Amino acid sequence: MLTKLRHSRPVGLARYYLYRDILLARPRRHTCNICGWRGRRFLTYLHPFVLCPQCGSQIRHRLIAAALQWHAVRAQTRLDEARVLHVSPEYCLGLILRPRARQYVRADRLPAACDVRQDITRMPFKDGAFDTVVVCDTLEHIADDRRAIGECRRVLVPGGTAILTVPQSDNRHDTYDDPAVATTEARAARYGQPDHVRNYGADFGDRLAAAGFTVTCVDASAFDPALVTQHVLRPPVPLHEPWGWNDRRIYFGVRR
Ligand SMILES: [Zn+2]
Fold it and tell me: How confident is the model at residue 1 (pLDDT cuts 50, 70, 90)?
């Protein structure tokens, strides 16, 4: 079995690079605003044509990169020479966070590819230890998400910024969270994934505000349509599942 794996992996990678660098190369219609990859289209991951074949960025990551170019968001989000905590760290966001930070800490529930193993509802950091906290698509897995949001605030300095995303139903205002939905099958049917414990609505920003953040929300409608197409900041092929998740929103919460 091991011999088979050892021989199959290089062949798989060679085929992948052939596909990415030759078959996807032209026309250079789309650009990843994180790693700079340019090509005909992104790859399919849950949504068709949304995954960067080079750095693995998805729509939410490229929206964060685009939003950080905005004056209002850029002015309130400290990244240069900052102490940055990246929870459930994604490789692609590390590409824009790590080079600018004075201290870059990756924390996760699982020890793989992180610096600190933690439970997000009980972070092992002092109050005000960070200037910026980044948490993407994590809270929908956490039973006590309000406590996790409170921890994000606690470890920030006053005036520090939390950058947060959650999968949100497109047309739902109220977060849907039913204790009766307890099995993996029921969660997959109601929330879209077996490991999700709720479906957030547009009221997610209210949760952040109630926890002590001043919130700025950015989505694809804030950008020029040509830029949205170029960086794929909205799914080119929308999904029509009841839980939605097509229009991603980025929340920048400044600790009050
Ligand atoms: Zn990329």
Answer: very low
